[in-house]
Amino acid sequence: AAAEEEEEAAAEEEAAASAVQLAGAVAPLTTLLLSSGAVEVKQHIALTLAHTVRGSWRLVFNAGGFQALLDVLAAGSEAVQQDVSLTLAALLEDVHQRGALLADLNSISAIVGLLNSPNEGTQQNAAKAVAALAEEEAARETLYRLGTLSHVTRSLAAANTVRPDGTRGGAANPDARVSMVRVVASFAADARYCNMLRIAIQPLVAMLSAGGAEATVHVARAVTSLSGAEPNRDALRDAGALPRMAELLLHDEEAVQQAAVQCVANLGVEASDAKAFLAAGWHLSLISLLSASSAEVQGAAAAVLGNLSSVPEFRDALLSDGALQPILQLLHTSALPARTAAVRALAIMSQQLMSPSLPADDAGAAAFVDAFFAADALPTLLAALGDERPREGVDGGTADREAVAVLLLLQSLSGGHGGVRPRLVAGGAVEALLRFLPAAARYDKGTSTGEMVDAAASTLASLALAAAAPPRIEQAGGVPTLLRLVESKKPAAVAPAARVLANLLRDEPPAGLPEAVAPALVQALSTAKPSAVVDLLSALSHVHGVCRNAFGGAVLAQLAAGLLKAVQDKENHEACLASISLLSQLALRPEARAALAEAGLAPALRESAAAGWRCTELLLGILSAEEAAPQASRRSSCSDPSPHASVAHAAPAPPALHQPA
User: Fold this and answer.
1) pLDDT tens-digit profile of 382-391?
2) CA distances in angstroms from 419 to 366, 369, 423, listed in the order given
3) What does the pLDDT read at residue 218?
4) What pTM does this model have?
């Protein structure tokens, strides 16, 4: 009977409240609440409104906005505060409603104050409201000033602290933990606060495996944002974030997968991680993410796959599981970071697939090359070399990384394996490299530029060995360009440029080429860094091999001085041997023997002979030879049936080095 009476009383009270609502009492009560300054009056009105709206505090919000709800919070009882805070949390999930609240930043302070409420329900509702507010950039600044970030990170750390009895400290309510993680995720995505969240790394990583489904989404987002800042990466690795985020590559939620791949890319993987990725099947998820809707995600997946593809087993798995085609398709994306990551992945794969250690008919190499040209990848790569650096409107660092990756890929392809050189030459690689080299050499930006110039000239040197390349190099004005690089005295440019010239001086080079390049090569030898000496000596040996008359007079004297310097450099053993090889050729000519003797080669060679070098003993013998009497039947030094013979005898002096570009 008592229960029935209570039910009847509740029903009557509900009916009375509905009648008051229908009578339109909520609006005037709300107006009275906002206009009254007396605390007792506000408390009485708040209680009346609570009885009237019966939990439907949106009615009060519709009549008086956020200020009315905040006044009720300030004047209402603990139970009323819990009800109103729940309504506030729900309202603030709407981005438009958040904008209205942000017009009065003092309102944020009132909501933050509820985090210290003695009522656990009110605390949880306030945490939800703060989590929603934290998604707004303007609100984060106010929340930070109010100490909210510090409060949340401490609470999160405490919530993940395990006591001796096995229980966890701090808030154990799953909803509260989700709200805290949401706050941290929003602040972590803000560059102003990302480096202030080191204390949150350990609890966040722990929640990757122990958190619920909803929490995992926000935790993954937070950890990924933190990994974007270099100062946080070591702490994340030490906390075990890499393997745990890699596990999330197989998560059911696409958003979690995308966050995971970006985090893994930021933290970086090594060849030693390839086995774990294969065993767990994580590489399959990475392959599928190559086709994600986000270019950033595509680039991250390509970057991770590229780093791991240096391991042959992993690379073979990628090829068999269909990763090559989506990576090649990324070459055509307009997003520079994603395109750069794809080029870099291909460059790493090609270093192994195009290795001379593989058999000429290797199926993997053939499939790679065929797919590369079928995807029309070469024009896209060459286009990346078409503009002078820096490129306006493009991130310079990323543009440089793309150019370096393109050049490394071309360098691997031009190595001679698989018959790719003719296809690269036919595709315009020679002309693109010759256009790129002067621009890259002018844009002096330290190591990056050195890598680009070296890779471009080295690739051109390899392509010069293709039958169709020399005429195209000559037609594109390549010799003057290469001579300017030789004269530049830049270590990264001198050696590979000399290598290109050496490769052009074979078979029957263009008439006048040996005489044109000899003075520049000799001059470069006298000032070259040790790393460039062998390449210069090789080019000079080629010059002498095709036209002995290219050296004479002052050029011969300067060459003798350069060779003396190379012979005396005992630390550069390879250059010393190369110089002795060229000396052995020169010593067959009486005028060259005289120049070598005048330069003081004999004492330096005797020092080497004393060290047990048999080749220098033989060379010393030739240098001591007397000039033989001339004979009518003796052939001239350039009387061989080469195109240089007529040029050498027709001109009393070598032609000009080169004309200005």
Assistant:
1) 998 875 444 4
2) 10, 9, 8
3) 94
4) 0.79
